[in-house]
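Write out the bound-state structure for cytidine-5'-triphosphate.
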Amino acid sequence: MNIVLGISGGIAAYKTPDLVRRLKERGAEVQIVMTASAEEFVTETALQAVSGRPVRSNLWDKEAEASMSHIELARWADAVLIAPATAEIMARLAGGSAPDLLTTMCLATEAPIAVAPAMNHIMWSNPAVQANRRTLEDRGVMIIGPDSGSQACGETGAGRMTEPNEIAAMVTALAQPSGGRLEGRTVVITAGPTREPIDPVRYITNRSSGKMGYAMASAAAAEGARVILISGPVTLREPRGVEVHRVETAAEMYETTHGLVRDADLFIAAAAVADYRPTTPAEQKIKKTTDSTSIDLVRSEDILASVAGLDDAPFTVGFAAETNKLREYALSKLEKKRLNMIIANRVGSDCGFDYDENAVEVFWPGGEQAFPTAAKTELARQLVSLIADRYDSLRDDGRSSVIPLEDRKKKRTQ
Ligand code: CTP
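---
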């Protein structure tokens, strides 16, 4: 497993010799690429000693380029990690500029990229930095941390680089996704809103951004699953290694899901499906001829309940977005729709849809667990791990309602 470790110029760079050791303990070959300002915080000599390879820093170093050019380096990497990542390097990555070896290599690589930001907490919360973070995240860059706590500048807040051991665990899993908890499993996920046409130019939709469903898809893929994402209209980048089917309406999502879910071991319904659709969309644009009007709506099929109700249903997970009585409503949906698990979150003007963070409560028959506020990407990793736990324990249990896909296929042919 080959990892390029890019080090940019922040005080947390002093932790990078330890980070290199942690990566190597997990079986990685580490090639270090430093920016000019990183050299102010950690020495090339120390890094060369721990990595066992000459450190690269200069795009114009003829000798180094002759032995492995920056393009070859970009190809060599199974993952690129930038730790610590300063506000400056994040801005360069977001803007696609490439003034040095590290940023040039990031543009030239097809390997997954992870960044571990580290900076003063006020810098981290600056809207420009957060906009760059979002851009990178939407492009599929893994953002690790930052953690909260006391900072080198003497202040306290979110901006500390995540501990080297934790970074090493996440990046080695990114570089070598095999051997995950869902290896060999197929997971079908619905995500995003649906659009229900009123006439050729108007539709009914909702505020769902698709972020949670896309984060669940990335997290399941990182655990080694084959992931099929059925997505309503969103502006997010397709997650790496995930098969994406695009749909518009609830009816298309229903058809596509049932066409694909028979081969799924797990089904996660994260889409915010429109519950009602106009009974008969107008063929021509509706003209404003009256002072008031109304639209006749008809109920959409419940995709989640219909999958959970299949004779050979996969392990089925639903979401519940509630403004009030979260526990009561979530438990009633768990039971009514006959789900294996429900993930409930509060929605309102200050949380839920279109936010990058989320806090959820998860319920399953006989158990529950609360997850405090975290970035949706991080939360998705924790939720997928819980789903894998519950899936495994149900399958190990003789009374399990979850029949392994192999056995379901055999049953169908009998
Ligand atoms: N869902 C679905 N198909 C629908 C409606 C919802 O698959 N036609 C799924 C969603 O993806 C989510 C869960 O069901 O996993 C949400 O449950 P639901 O009871 O529909 O939530 P609300 O629409 O919020 O329902 P209510 O208005 O009853 O609270």
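---
The longest strand covers residues 367-375.
The chain has two domains: 2-175, 186-279+294-413.
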